[in-house]
């Protein structure tokens, strides 16, 4: 992990297209501004992990549905 120190209104560039700016510091909480292309999805980590979990569950359900359909059609032969 890269650790960088930034002051209020200072930025960090990620590649050529993503800029993180420290907008406010209040105790242990900071506000970050993020400039990125519209095609880049940006989520808080807990939301990102929830999306990944839901996608994983959806694939399992879809796989089970396909297996059930396959069994159904095999029994009709």
UniProtKB/TrEMBL annotation:
GO molecular function: mRNA 5'-UTR binding
GO biological process assignments: bacterial-type flagellum organization; mRNA catabolic process; negative regulation of translational initiation; regulation of bacterial-type flagellum assembly; regulation of carbohydrate metabolic process
Stored SUPFAM superfamilies: CsrA-like (SSF117130)
This protein's record includes keyword Repressor: yes
Pfam families registered for this protein in UniProt: CsrA
GO CC aspect terms: cytosol
Database matches in InterPro entries: CsrA (IPR003751), CsrA_sf (IPR036107)
Subcellular location: Cytoplasm
Main location group: cytoplasm
Keywords: Bacterial flagellum biogenesis, Cytoplasm, Repressor, RNA-binding, Translation regulation
Quaternary structure and partners: Homodimer; the beta-strands of each monomer intercalate to form a hydrophobic core, while the alpha-helices form wings that extend away from the core.
Family: Belongs to the CsrA/RsmA family.
Stored NCBIfam families: csrA, PRK01712.1
Purpose of the protein: A translational regulator that binds mRNA to regulate translation initiation and/or mRNA stability. Usually binds in the 5'-UTR at or near the Shine-Dalgarno sequence preventing ribosome-binding, thus repressing translation. Its main target seems to be the major flagellin gene, while its function is anatagonized by FliW.
Protein name: Translational regulator CsrA
Organism: Peribacillus cavernae
Taxonomic lineage: Bacteria, Bacillati, Bacillota, Bacilli, Bacillales
Name of the encoding gene: csrA
């Amino acid at each position: 992990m890269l650790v960088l120190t930034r002051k209020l209104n200072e930025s960090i560039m990620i590649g050529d297209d993503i800029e993180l700016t420290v907008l406010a510091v209040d105790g242990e909480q900071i506000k970050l501004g993020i400039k990125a292309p519209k095609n880049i999805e940006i989520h808080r980590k807990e939301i990102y992990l929830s999306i990944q979990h839901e996608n994983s569950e959806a694939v399992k359900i879809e796989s089970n549905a396909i297996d059930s359909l396959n069994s159904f059609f095999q029994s009709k032969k």
